[in-house]
Amino acid sequence: CLYKIFRNERPDLEEKRIELTKMQGEYNLRLYNLQKKLLSVLNEAQGGLLDDERIISTLKQLNEQSIEISSKVEDSKNHLVVVNSSLDFYQPFATTCSLLYFLLQDLHALNNLYHYSLNFFFDIFNSVFVEVAPCSNNDDTIHLDTLVIVLLRKLVERV
Length: 159
Fold this sequence. Notes:
Residues 2-69 form the Dynein heavy chain ATP-binding dynein motor region domain. The chain is mainly α. The protein has helices at residues 2-9, 11-44, 53-89, 91-106, 118-131, 141-158. The chain has one domain.
């Protein structure tokens, strides 16, 4: 639920989160390839390592690239922390949604007619975002309360 909420409420940050996660994977792959290249160059070395100019220049180049990539990885981690803090704002609503879904699942203990699928719940869940406009700032707890109230109202109407 959390990522569906985030996608509906803050699509800009969701796109940024996906992009940052993708970039981190690409940076880690580039670091891995640099390590493989270093091992390959060291494996092909003949004679003394410090006497081979090709090894020295390759080591310098790999060191510069790894420092640059490590810096980019650190920057993307910092940006991801900011995005995840925005994600944390919606955690209480996501928890409420999960509890409500499992409550729906337990209703069949009262009567066998009460069987609801996850798709049924998500239909109601998605209709909440059609009715309630996205939050303009990230500190509006009134907005979260409104989302919960609308979700509860829609559940009562449909169940």
